Input
Amino acid sequence: MMLARGIPASSCYACCLIVIFSCSVFAGCHRNASFRLRGNANCTWSLERHTRSYNHLEGDVRRRRLYSATEYFLKIDKTGKVKGTQRKNCINSILEIRSVSVGVVAIKSVSTGYYLAMNKKGRLYGTKEYNQNCKFKEKIEENRYNTYASLKWKHKGRRMFVSLDRNGTPRWGHKTRRRHLSAHFLPMPVS
Output
């Protein structure tokens, strides 16, 4: 369809969209960057991406068994010792994973009441009292396994990860890396 003077309708439509977009941009200015408009009017505008609110994720609780790529379930026994077990029905391997902030979780054994924690040297242990050592950064890796890195502690600038070796023994955090399979866990739903 052609409009008057041989201008195609699609071009006219595109021009209208550009005008509408331009008006909405300058009408809804933001305060982070300023531009000078005609008539000495000041307007501010930002191209920054607005942060989303993830408050609905805080306090989210999941009951899971953390199954390591080394074929062990993470467990915290009644003395607070952290280790791996190959028993599928071990009561101490049922964990409560609670979101404490975006991407940060606290992991607690349901049966023993111990929180998973990592000290400054990278040793995993269980503690009855929740503290800064109990916060772990949860990340879904490309292979769809999760990694859990200490939020508080690093070793020479590198994150220290929750990890079970091929015998089900926890590895010291300074010896772990994100790419190690021993640090990869599948959170398996508890039935």
In short: Residues 23-54 have pLDDT under 50 and may be disordered.
